[in-house]
Amino acid sequence: MTRSPAPGPAGLTRPGLLWALPATAFFAAFALVPLALVAVLSFTTWNGVGAPRAAGLTNWTALLHDPVMLKSLWLSALLTLLGVLLQTPISLLLGVWAAGHQRNRAILSAIYFVPLLLSATAVSVLWRALLDPNFGLPAQAPWLFGDGNLLGSRDGAIGVLAFVGAWQWTPLHTLIYQGSARAVPPVLYQAAAIDGAGRARQFWHVTLPQLRTTMVTSTVLMVVGGLTTFDTVLILTQGGPGTETTISAYYMYQQGFKNFDFGGASAIALVLVLVATVVSLAMVRLSGYDAMRAGAEGI
């Protein structure tokens, strides 16, 4: 006997629980189960060969006293913050601009979205070649790049990582803002124009408030993506110079696939998951996003 759908707002009905089973099963198989296995592995010592051996809290105690791990968390937070500060205003303004229906905007938007079609690996290889101090842009414009070895200093390497990340992922957030800006009811702009508001005031008092939930969603995606970025660091800096760009995700790779300490790497992975989850939930909570409900929520 099947359960009848529960009534929703305005006489509409909610789908039954069976509709959620495929997605739930997929999420459990490819997210929850692997995460549980990583949690178990974090309490073991394992070099990838043979059976893991129980190690208790050894891996976690080592992390608490590991200066590289603490530094990697700070670097991850710094790169994430730089990414949010760079990408948010650019993607917001470009998204609102691209929401116009003029033909030239559609063409320029399509060109601008090209970096989004490339993989992070391809983007990293591209910029590593372009920033080569001997044959790339720095060699052609020493007046702008100085000695040209941008990846040889801490500030230069961090700046390059932030710029390359923004170059690739700003188009994604621009697309998100573009779709949201087009969903703003035109009547709001018409009412604002009648009240004498120009474009600048319409942007600040109509567009931005309407994009509030979109800004929260975009920022959460930036934060999670920034905390878990890996391939860009692997190809561009390999954690260098020294450990100046060894972020947590790259340190996890080093521990697991270079030092063959998969137990310690699993502990780092869990720390990343916990940090990303706590930060995301805090952002949603503090922004009031969870209190925003549509009239047809859950239908």
From TrEMBL:
It is a multi-pass membrane protein. GO terms for biological process: transmembrane transport. GO terms for cellular component: plasma membrane. It is found in: Cell membrane. The chain crosses the membrane at residues 20-43, 73-99, 106-127, 262-284. Residues 73-283 form the ABC transmembrane type-1 domain. Keywords: Cell membrane, Membrane, Transmembrane, Transmembrane helix, Transport. SUPFAM superfamilies: MetI-like. PANTHER family: ABC TRANSPORTER PERMEASE PROTEIN, INNER MEMBRANE ABC TRANSPORTER PERMEASE PROTEIN YCJO. Belongs to the binding-protein-dependent transport system permease family. This is Xylobiose ABC transporter membrane protein. It comes from Kitasatospora viridis.
